[in-house]
Design goal:
This protein has 322 residues and is of the alpha+beta class. It has seven helices and 19 strands. The strands form three sheets. Strands 1, 2, 3, 4, 5, 6, 7, 8, 9, 11, 12, 14 and 17 form a 13-stranded mixed sheet that branches. It has a four-stranded antiparallel sheet with strand order 16-15-18-19, with no helix packed on it. Belongs to the FAH family.
Amino acid sequence: MNFGYTNQARRSSKTKLPSSGKYVSYRTKGNPRPNVGLLDPSSTTVTPLRFPDNSPIRSLHHLIEEWDKVHETLIPGTPVENVSDVVLLAPLRGRDVLCVGKNYREHAEEFHNSGFDKSDNKAQPDFPVIFTKRASSIIGNGAHIYPHPKVTQSVDYEGELAIIIGKGGIGITKEDAWTHVWGATIVNDVTARERQRDHKQFYIGKSLDTFCPMGPWAVQASYLDFKTMHLTTRLNGNIVQSQNTSELIFDIPTIIETVSMGATLQPGDVIATGTPAGVCLSTGVYLKDGDEVEVEITGIGKLKNRVVDRGAAPECLPVRLG
């Protein structure tokens, strides 16, 4: 895309963009094409964004990739919509999500003592436990989690802070890691526990369709204080997880150094950093039809999804990024 815009084009917008730092992937009702927009500070309206050459932004991946060139000269489009009138999509779709397991001490203990942990012979790992969730498992805020009753009887939630890579790279050091972070979102790492146990590797138990709620939006890093973020998960309105996200066993720079060790990270990659204690396996009572899971993180927002078993798996449609 050619960003050889003129100063006149830069001044052509008379509408000032809201400065919330919250970027939304969404569809207007009746239109299948996705948009990328910016929320107002109250998170009640969304303004569609356009590149400086006036072309629409259809993918947050593309915006993040071009971020350093264009973020100060983005053009507001029309119409401005109420958030309640649009369909929120997961902010970043179409790529597998990188994930870290057993990354809070109390959760590492509860998982290890549950009988489901076949990944190690001790609770706290010596190195970050890395796995992926299939891209086809990603859904947005408000979308339904399908419990796959023919596949699993132990569906569990895991509220997590997910960081978003801005500048890609390979062999990123801990010292440089924060310069590669574009922002953050929320992930609910929904898990089929017996599949996670039986298959040893986590991929199958983590990757069933609809098992990666993400959102409700992506927040740019300059609007976040990663030291003061608190994660709260509610099941049917009751608090089940509560912990500061800075209490990770392996911190964010260590995670980035680990996952980029010989493997290239790309702009827009999502890394879920792990879940605190308080998941279903600690009680043996798992998610069922009608349950609602809400994950809230300070400075980001609330990701809310309901478990819905309609007797048949949802149709999987190919993801359109543009």
